[in-house]
Design a protein that fits this description.
Elements lengths: L11 E5 L2 E4 L3 E10 L10 E6 L2 E7 L5 E7 L7 E9 L8 E10 L3 E6 L8 E10 L10 E6 L2 E7 L5 E7 L4
Length: 174
């Protein structure tokens, strides 16, 4: 009589720890993959990372089961709490597993440099401001700056990749 042997794929657990980062800085995200049966690390496995549902990278587990991904919190990322999903999709030997953590992104101090604009009544001048991070002077892109003249809001403009926002302003006639 034939003897049939069924080999089932092993269950795995993927674990990770929530992290904090400031905009403009990098953070190391780590997922640790283990076999459930004996808690041994699983090496050589591809682990996928997503931030708020968008893929941010893939890392391969090392001998300690660690899949390590360095992620830079760019200016495009809003400050606040974000969700990082980490997933091992399984293979011929092991079943899939996943982990979900939070990435808390904190805003950084900024400063604005304003270029002096002069003109006479009835003329149009260009108001210009440069937005930068305080820590490293990096120009901040895609942020709205409000322009005031004598304490009155006269308009707003979005910063370009060079951190500059401009607004044409008609100096009122008396």
């Amino acid at each position: 009589l034939p003897i049939y042997l069924t080999v089932n794929r092993g269950d795995t657990t993927l674990s990770a720890v929530s992290k904090k980062v400031s905009i403009g800085k990098s953070v190391v995200l780590t997922g640790v993959l283990r076999r459930n049966i004996d808690k041994a690390y699983v090496s050589g496995a591809s682990v996928f990372f997503w931030l708020d549902g968008a893929p941010i990278g893939i890392a391969t587990t090392d001998a300690n089961g660690q899949a390590i991904l360095t992620y830079e919190a760019t200016d495009a990322l809003a400050s606040g709490v974000h969700t990082v999903n980490i997933q091992y999709q399984g293979d011929d030997n092991y079943l899939a597993s996943s982990a979900s953590i939070t990435l808390t992104v904190s805003a950084v101090d900024t400063f604005v440099t304003v270029t002096k604009a002069t003109g006479g009544a009835g003329t149009t001048v260009t108001l210009k401001a440069l937005l930068r991070r305080k820590a490293d002077g990096y120009n901040i892109n895609n942020r709205t700056l409000s322009f005031y003249v004598d304490g009155v809001l006269v308009g707003s403009s979005v910063t370009l990749p060079n951190g500059v926002a401009t607004l044409n302003y008609l100096i009122p006639s008396d």
